[in-house]
Amino acid sequence: MVTISTPATLESFRRFIIASTCRSYAPKNYLGDAEVFAEREDKLGAIYVEAADKVTLKKIRDITFMNARDVLGIIYNSKTGNTSLKWRQIRRMEGKVTGEASTNSLTNLAEAGVLTLDWVENYLKKKA
Length: 128
Known about the structure:
Number of strands: 6
Low-confidence stretches: none
Mean pLDDT: 95
Structural class: alpha+beta
Radius of gyration: 14 Å
Shape: globular
Distance between the termini: 16 Å
Number of domains: 1
């Protein structure tokens, strides 16, 4: 487990959640829409989007796709329980991601742009 505490955009965290949960079967028009988020029930590893305005679009498998505006925070828990992350809004679309991530989640965090090359380099320096 790796402790995460890093600034991140809402869009990068949205991409991380999609990559970690439903990229293979999400409708293509949802993937590119910055207002579409994935949610999942508690028993399956909760994903919850806290927003001022939220509308259910469609449920596919265990994921409910939501159209959300004015997102204040997102809670993400993996099905395995090895990753538990929160994104909290700081200013508009900018926020901070905190929590614990598995090595598998680190890959998705980096691919989505949540973790930067600087973050990875600093982490590796601390481990050396």
